Amino acid sequence: MSDTPAGSLYVVATPIGNLDDLSPRAARVLGEVAVIAAEDTRHSGRLLRHLGLSRPMLSLHEHNEAARVDQLDARLVAGQDVALVSDAGTPLISDPGFVLVRELRARGRRIVPVPGPCALVAALSAAGLPTDRFLFQGFLPAKGGARRERLEALAAREETLVFYESPHRIRDTLADLATTLGERRVVLARELTKAFETFLDGSADELLARMEEDSDQARGEFVVMVAGAAPRGDAESSAVEADVLLSALLAEGVGVKQAAAVAARVLGGAKKVWYGRLQALKDGH
Ligand code: SAM
Fold it and tell me: What are the residue boundaries of the RsmI HTH domain, all occurrences included (predicted)?
């Protein structure tokens, strides 16, 4: 056993656009560690050059993260400090690092956050939507069916909903928001901290129309924030209201599967749950 105290893993947030957002502490840590594990070493190399720093780097991305754990832990055990950075913002937030942090924490290593930019926090801080409770969902599924299903499952949530989105899918996502969540206030934060930073505010349909008028509005990186569902009355009265709607659908001859889809869209919640309740009503329970 060596007497050298183990080193620390510093989880360092880096800018999401404006390089001045890197904190002095982050710069100091990046300049002092023995090695920097980076999602993309070329990308982070440019940041280091901007800071006038030169440190050994190694890549850590979703395809090699598990394999890097022992390698980086050996550095820590040898008493070296290590920094983890991603391409932009806070590592682990829709970025690599979770496996590394989980494993090193399980081994009792010291893990130190060096906080800083994070697109979802920056977006929420300026959107004017409630922030007392919010539900961050990362990226929605790429395929339309799965995306709409995820949104339907979120329809009854009363917290502000927050998503990350790319320019390739922003229009499809807005269209799906309109069909699954209906008339809700949506705030789009685009290109945060960069030259073309823009906040657009309106219903999903209105924002789509803005993009039709001005295709530049669909370019860049986005945080999509959606107002939560209007609060419902007490659980019991909403359950009674739901049963009235479900019974009416069955009485009109709508099939259980289709009625479950309608209920999920109108009342929120998962189709599967409504399917079960409809079966029970049909069976007279
Ligand atoms: N770890 C990062 C963070 O802390 O925000 C997020 C990384 S994730 C791979 C990239 C996504 O974050 C983008 O697709 C976009 O949704 C969002 N994002 C990152 N930078 C942004 C910016 N400057 N403006 C708006 N959204 C941004």
Answer: 237-282
Q: What fold is seen in the domain 120-226?
A: 3.30.950
**Domain spans, the chain:** 8-116, 120-226, 232-284
What CATH number labels 8-116?
Answer: 3.40.1010.10
Instruction: Specify the DSSP class assigned to residue 169.
Output: T
Interval between CA 138 and ligand 1 midpoint (Å): 10
Instruction: Please tell me the distance from the alpha carbon of residue 243 to that of residue 237, in angstroms, as a whole number.
Output: 10
Per-residue pLDDT tens digits for 162-219: 999 999 999 999 999 999 998 899 999 999 999 999 999 999 999 999 999 999 999 9
* CA-proximal residue: ligand 1, atom 20 (nearest): 16
* Most informative mutation of 16, 162, 168 for ligand 1 (most atoms within 8 A of CB): 16
pLDDT value at residue 151: 97
Chain mean pLDDT for the chain: 94
Please give the Cα distance from 280 to 285 (Å, whole number): 5
Q: Give the model's confidence band at 236: pLDDT under 50 very low, under 70 low, under 90 confident, else very high.
A: low
Distance CA 186, CA 62 (A): 31
**Best residue for ligand 1 mutational test, from 47, 162, 223, 225 (most atoms within 8 Å of Cβ):** 223
